[in-house]
Amino acid sequence: MNPVTTPEKQTQSRTATQNPLLELQKQGQSVWLDYIRRDLITGGELKRLIDEDGLRGITSNPSIFEKAIAGSVDYAGLLEQLHAQGLSSGDIYERIAVRDIQDAADLLFPVYKATNKHDGYVSLEVSPTLARDTNGTIAEARRLWKTVARPNIMIKVPGTSEGVPAVRQLISEGININITLLFSQEAYRKVAEAYIEGLQAAEKEGKDISGIASVASFFVSRIDSLVDSIIDERLKTASSPQDQELLRSLQGKVAIANAKQAYRTYQKLIEDQRWKDLAARGAQVQRLLWASTSTKNPKYRDVMYIEDLIGPDTVNTIPPATMDAFRDHGIMKRTLDADVAAADATMTNLEKAGISMKKVTDQLLEEAIKLFADSFHKLLSAVEQKKRNQ
Questions:
Q1: Among all residues, which ones are annotated catalytic?
Q2: pLDDT band at residue 18, thresholds of 50, 70 and 90?
Q3: Range 319-344 average pLDDT
Q4: Which pLDDT tens digit goes with each residue over 156-180?
């Protein structure tokens, strides 16, 4: 079965009146695909997703490319050609990635035009090894932007303390940026501020700021995975029924509560006069993007990180299996700014339970940086192995 197709029994759901993915657009949320592979582009599935499911963008990362290259024969011909040119594994990967990003961006370009540059983007990540290198990130982002040479791409920059000034500088140069690896409220506020400051700098230099786009990518399910594992350990030693009840009340709740608080911050930001001045001159909002939205715990509903995060001016980047699930049985309702008081209570109770959200998000950021760096090295190894096997 094609990675993003559905069984025949689901086909009838792909209609304008029955498809929940299309209904998300009516709530102001864009669906992007957290997946890329050569046959997705060449086999017609990406075009079908755009036409039938209202797909409005694509995100990629080294892990996705590693699985695509190592797990398929889609790249055999190009690998052979590039290997014959004597290129390094890193250069070969970049040529492959750039070709896929360009071709996907071309297919999404009509969406980019139809939405007045609001959607239709494809994201390509700077090397994860640069997560703590401001100048290196800026240089690589500039190079990738120039190499891909498509207006509807976003360069992914990690939302580390070193990434924040890179975001500010790159936005000021008119480069579209997807800020990735966001977990904490503090990190989000910093990158939102960097976006505003970057737009102000671009405007001072006479640039058309209406064409500059950015998303702030909040990772969701990983938060619950880590918090739930901490809760499981605490439950082993919690002696009182009250402590046990408090801990259990937090299971599967923290990630969504954290996201709702971030969205409230966003709503306050766009009411600020600084933003209103920029918006009056055509600036686009920096949308929150929900990433890592597949459900890791089989006890939880498989589409909970879509259903519970529906709201205007947001993006949900969804992996294929979760997209299929939501198309099949997703429930549509604006949820993102509903019952925010309960979200606040969840975060308060988390602290009462002795679990530090700061420690959780700090740990997740470091783990994610390492995971993506490991995936990048694994990707280069996969390219090298393919070269040897030719």
A1: 156
A2: confident
A3: 96
A4: 999 999 999 999 999 999 999 999 9
Mean pLDDT across the stretch 75-92? 90
Q: What is the C-alpha separation between 142 and 154, in angstroms, rounded?
A: 11
Q: Are strands 287-291 and 57-59 parallel, antiparallel or unpaired?
A: unpaired
Residue 63 pLDDT: 86
Mean predicted lDDT score pLDDT of the chain? 93
